[in-house]
């Protein structure tokens, strides 16, 4: 590669994971992650996106006490002894990564968290999931639970953007991707690449939603959000059937044009890569999505002034026709 | 229809228009609109979405003075004598509509405007386009101009929501649809249906964007926005080749599931209809997009605090890894 192309091309990998069953040890999982990191590096990637809660099964589907969940599924430090081989391989290969896990803080708080790791295997950023889906009560009639609101607090770090490998990178997690506020908060900080992991059950426990729509919704929100925010997106699933509970795959890399440039084709461990062109995002930011020229924040105030949907605002006189 | 189904079903029509050439009179255009209104009524619709700037050619493509534009293309009142036949037909048939036009106010201000008209043919709402695309300078080397920033002021009425025909309806216009703030401002006011007209040139004058992406972007922003805001969308194009300048078609009705339930298949005058089920939006609003349960406005403040994209915010200490 010439110096010119190195300046704006970036080797991005998304490492989709097949299922992690209850019986799988963290050591076995980390071994799979290391294998995929090595494959990504061999394919010229310098950054790998791993899934949300990558180290364990998607435990919010099981009813248990917070104490049981902490004991089995949360990490007290990152890295820790179980995960160290992944950090060692990253340092050896000079590959950064995003990794999702259940975080227990020193003062006992619980978050659904992702870390950003640089090419020297140093943790340089942390994001805590803001949009926790699901419920906190036991639903004995549901085929499974979705207890993120029981096991996690709402993330308290906002939507930061970090500069790593000379790129402005933002992070989000799973359900965050359905909320346009997530993406806009980062594109307003000049994010060029936004990475996320997800565990998305194929069945909606709240109502009888056709199963194919679960993947469709994942696609349309990633495609539209990449376009509307002029960012590249790398999205990594943990998917397939974990002890009988199926989750969608379709890990993908999406361009600022909204086009899917790489996509996982199965529901097992699978690395997809692309040499992404960061100038593509710049072009969109200079024209159709030149925020400084086109946005009208004075007219967006309701977005921060209301949480839930409410009554229509009183009409300005001229809006009455 | 039973009383029960009448309560939540709504007959929606989108009236796509083929080209309006420079030589076409307003009277000829209104005759076409009346014909489509009659077809929509015959197909059990009680509301028709017409395009943006429906009464004339898409004049912002031509360089001229503001005075020339006002003289040829702006309306001093709505309705007026030329448009009265459309209002008369609407009253006769009991069909409401959305109509886009260039508005000249009594005090000489110019807006890209749409009116909301009820089943008694009374104007009950007015929206003025907020997100004006294009430029205000003459670009003699471009194949055509896009002078919305010259001919129009930024809309000054916010994003109101009106109750008409027992439904909460919001309006936006063309480029507004690319901006997630548009949709969210209305879904936070419990909009159930959002209607828009558009004139979208098939070529991007700012850079060499593949032509097929123009329709693709239109699709993904409508599909994702319908889903993310749990609203029905009716979107009406003026399309085809106006005096040699081509614009995209693909008028459509999109469900809160993000699915396209009706779509125009050509680039001429064409009415599409659907009996839309408003309960579908309610289901999404009660679960995945229950804003009160899931949104975190405190963490969205940048959306109103910044206009253009800027530097990443200082990192909270815990976000530093």
Automatic annotation (TrEMBL), chains A, B:
Residue ranges constituting the CN hydrolase domain according to the UniProt record: 10-278
Keyword set, alphabetical order: Hydrolase
PROSITE patterns listed in its UniProt record: CN_HYDROLASE (PS50263)
GO terms, molecular function: hydrolase activity, acting on carbon-nitrogen (but not peptide) bonds, in linear amides
Origin: domain of life: Bacteria
Entry-linked InterPro entries: Aliph_Amidase/BUP (IPR050345), C-N_Hydrolase (IPR003010), C-N_Hydrolase_sf (IPR036526)
Keyword Zinc: no
Protein name: N-carbamoyl-D-amino-acid hydrolase
Species assigned in the record: Bordetella genomosp. 8
């Amino acid at each position: 590669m010439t110096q010119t192309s190195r300046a704006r091309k970036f080797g991005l990998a998304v490492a989709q994971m097949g299922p992690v069953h209850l019986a799988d040890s963290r050591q076995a999982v980390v071994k799979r992650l290391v294998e995929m990191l090595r494959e990504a590096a061999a394919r010229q990637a310098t950054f790998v996106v791993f899934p949300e809660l990558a180290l364990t099964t998607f435990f919010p589907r099981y009813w248990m006490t917070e104490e049981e969940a902490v004991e089995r599924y949360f990490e007290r430090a990152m890295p820790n002894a179980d995960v160290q081989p992944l950090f060692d391989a990253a340092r050896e290969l000079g590959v950064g990564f995003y990794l999702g896990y259940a975080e227990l803080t020193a003062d006992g708080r619980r978050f659904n968290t992702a870390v950003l790791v640089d090419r020297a295997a140093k943790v340089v950023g942390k994001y805590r999931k803001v949009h926790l889906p699901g419920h906190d009560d036991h639903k004995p009639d549901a085929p499974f639970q979705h207890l993120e609101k029981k096991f996690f607090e709402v993330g308290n770090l906002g939507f930061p953007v970090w500069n790593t490998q000379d790129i402005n990178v933002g992070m989000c997690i799973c359900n965050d991707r359905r909320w346009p506020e997530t993406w806009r908060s980062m594109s307003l900080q000049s994010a060029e690449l936004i990475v996320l992991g997800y565990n998305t059950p194929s069945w909606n426990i709240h109502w009888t939603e056709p199963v194919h729509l679960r993947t469709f919704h994942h696609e349309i929100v990633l495609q539209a959000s990449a376009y509307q925010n002029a960012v590249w997106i790398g999205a990594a699933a943990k998917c397939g059937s974990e002890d009988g509970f199926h989750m969608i795959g379709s890990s993908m890399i999406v361009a600022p044009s909204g086009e899917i440039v790489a996509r996982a084709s199965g529901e097992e461990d699978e690395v997809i890569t692309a040499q992404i062109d960061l100038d593509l995002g710049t072009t969109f930011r200079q024209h159709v999505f030149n925020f400084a020229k086109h946005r009208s924040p004075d007219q967006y105030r309701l977005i921060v002034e209301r949480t839930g949907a409410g009554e229509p605002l009183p009409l300005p006189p001229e809006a009455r026709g």
